[in-house]
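Case study B.
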Amino acid sequence: MKTQWILETHGEPVGSLCRFLQLAWTQLGLDGMLVPVNGKGSRDMELRVLNDPAQLDEVNPFRPLMTQNTARSLPELVGDDGSQHLGVLLRPCEMRALIEMVKHDSFRLARIVTICVDCLGTLPADEYQWRAERKGTHEALTQEALQFARQGGIVPYRYRPACQICSSPAAYGADLNINVLGLPVRQCLLIEIRDEAMAAQLHLSSAPLPLEMVYSPGEGVPEPLVDAELPAAGKLVAQRQRTVDKLVERRGRARERASLSLAETTTADVEGIIAMLEQCGSCQACMEACPICAVDFPNQDEKGRYVGGDVARWLISCSGCGMCEQACPGLRPLSAIFGYIRDQLAASAGYLPGSSVEDPLPLAWLSGLKFREVTVPVERMRNISKRTPTGLN
Amino acid sequence: MTAEALPARPDGVPFGRRALSAARLLVRRSLPDFLVHVIGQKRILKKAYPGIMHGLIFWGVTIQIVGTVINLMQMQLFLPLVTTPFLEQKTYLVYELVMDIAGLAIVAGVMMALFRRVVLRPKALETRWDDYYALILLALIPLVGFFLEAIRLLATEPAWANWSPAGNSVASLLTALGMTADTAISLHPILFWTHVVLGLALVGSIPFTKLRHLILTPLNVLLKPFRKEGTLSLIKDFEEAESFGVGQVSEFSFEQLLSFDACVRCGRCEDVCPAACSGMPYSPRSFVQALRHETSSLFASPPAASPLDTDLMNRQAWYCTTCGACLAGCPAFVNPVDAIIDLRRYQTLTTGRPPQSVANVLRSLERQGNPWGMAAGARTEWAAELGVRKLEPGDKCDVLLFLGCTFTYDERNKQVAHAFVQLLQTAGVDFATLGHDESCCGETARRLGEEYLYQTLAGQNIETLGQVSFNRIVTQCPHCFNTLKNEYPQLGATYPVQHYTQYLAELWPDLLAAANGQAQISQNGRITYHDPCYLGRYNHEYQSPRSLLRWAGLDSVEMVQRGENSFCCGGGGGQMWMESDAETRINQKRLADVMDVRANVVATACPYCLLMFDDAIRSQDLTSSVQVSDIAEILVQRLGADTGTRLS
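Model:
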């Protein structure tokens, strides 16, 4: 049974979370942790496997920037034998991608500890660069993102299009889920632990009422909730749920509108996508950025056309991370297009992508799909690339 | 989301004392408005026919209600409480007379109203079933009352019958028709109960018909949010609020929901709304009525959570110029502008789906610090050859010239800024600007719903202004003027701020003396002055610009819509940067007003007005017959100040 804990932050949500991750690292006996860290350039970001918990000081999971899907680089790192005992820090879309990747290729998650953090939205790379440059530090942008954790973000028109229509920003399905949405993060955040065994490993299970317990980093042993300043756990959980519900509802509407504007276009089905990819020639930038393609690259037949069943199997697993869109040199609104097709496929197959590793891919249903051959005139394709994903504008 | 009507609840103060202080505050703030606008009907009387019509009905009904209560108090039922019946002798006769006159007033008012609805049919009037229901009920009650009085007079034939003129006339009529005292006595109970039932029907239908305004409109006048004119509500709890703006009707404040209910659809807002008048698919009345309709869904069972985040509502939010014409005209003090801003806030801050042009201007504001998207570094280029002093931290000056983005970046308005600087230099004023350190005042961001950006920009300016000293801020832009003067105090920064026309009006004698004594005598053509909304309607400055023109020896003609009733140029509330349909341009409508008074110069004192007129003139190819000038430019010409600039 999963357990929830309040993590007191004492005004420093990032620092407190880092110290909690250090605790998790040592208590769970990890060999390393795959995390996004500051890159060499002052405003870049790169993925790195840390091998010393002390290095976690550099980690900042709340930075509103995502340059690649972390899940994509995991299979390589785990190795064929799966011997590495790794922790990996993921956004919800990356977590979903990882779950789907496991189902596409049978690499195992057994020795991997997944840590998923509520997502406060991310900015396009250039927007992020500009802001970071003006503010001088990454720190300021993180602080701004955290300042609006209570509402789940502010001024979303600045976000990446994929984030604007993302209707599942809440951490879910990982071994450790870190909750910040809707919470007074300068006071505390919530940590959800997979099961009591893991909580015990983290020294968090001795308490009779886990929800009412507070873990203050640095003090080692959890203490009962005595700080009157801190809202009651039940209230925090409800407050987060309310904020998540609201976000899901709003983003769901944005998603619907984006879909409406796409439903009439030629790329609204798998055949359309195949035709589109054909127009793209040898460019496979979207697939090279895609975590699913990292384990299950769609095949081309002898004529060079992508195989319908492969494309459907690829897109039904779409986690909505939008890395394809960020990579597309044709500036196509891919997160909206792929998201729309994913929704169509998943709804007809009765499948919930990214929800659980237990829920197998609907392979039988997918193999029953029939595909026509469609060619899309080049002119109409051009129009699609100019279309804004939101439709209203 | 405006919750400034009452002070925040101070913890630990007993409820009784809190209620008392709230009530005292309410009386102090709202009683004058209540007396003037409810009892005195001031705003309603602005329009003669409907004003008198409503006045007759309102005062008639009020007197009748008071009279009926007094009458009831005389009955046996209340005698133990009211021991001395005071309706005796002379008092009673006066009472009878007053009540008769009040009844006649109601009948007259209702007749006027029916005539208006059936025959005159003004364009702004829409009719629903309850409009007739209310009028017929209001007519029947006094008419039945007169018959009742008549048969009472017939039956008793008192000596003082003449004190009830209406009843007495009906009595004479009935006698002439052959009614006897006996018939009258037998008829009395029927008429009496009809009168009572009609009266109770009126009371009973208050919640279900337009008669609700009997209660809700006075209540709205009492409870309307108290903010300085020209200010929007401040979002204070950025970290605490669950969301920003309003995405569901239930998120409006109690006072706002009440105000939607207080609307009687009189259409005065629609009559003066520049967007509605120009044919845009928006009308403040329909907007408020739509919100009222949504509000009623809150009471459905189960309560329907109906989001305002629909395409229709999302578009509705972006036609308003925030000119305030609807606010100035509304007899019920409904505030559609606040509601519009709440919807905009929700779209920009919470859902992130404002129209593309809005997102673009907000991005420019954020990146370059001005809505024009021009380089921030170019902020001082306008004054390159003028030798204007820039205030460094720690410096002092008499007049701090707060330029505003439009004067800094727009070519046409740079000429206006040059003209004003020449006037200041001619008069030898010690003035300076903030140069690169000036940032957009934030007005555009705020009116577009980006409150966070507004507070960021305002914060930058307040910090800069805190590092220099000056005796007053003078700005040429009415939008900067309103924001610096009225809105920055919400952030704790109060400055002496003047619009340049106010400052020049003070400076005039010096200016005249410095410019060698007199203004040129001759005047070419007809000139008319257009009141900018944020100078006039929001800040009540109608005189200074007109005085300046007069002192400069110019006779101006007035347009029909002027002063408080001025018609917006179409550039306010962020509209300056939004795309609009070429068929429904507000500025062209306003230019038509100028052409109507056959003026060939339209003078204004606002950079947006200048550009909107300029655009209208060019697009209609009227450059040869009419031109637009800022008052500063006109003064430079008239005073023959030593100009190095091109004046158009």
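The longest helix of chain A spans residues 233-263. The remaining cases will be described in the next quarterly update.
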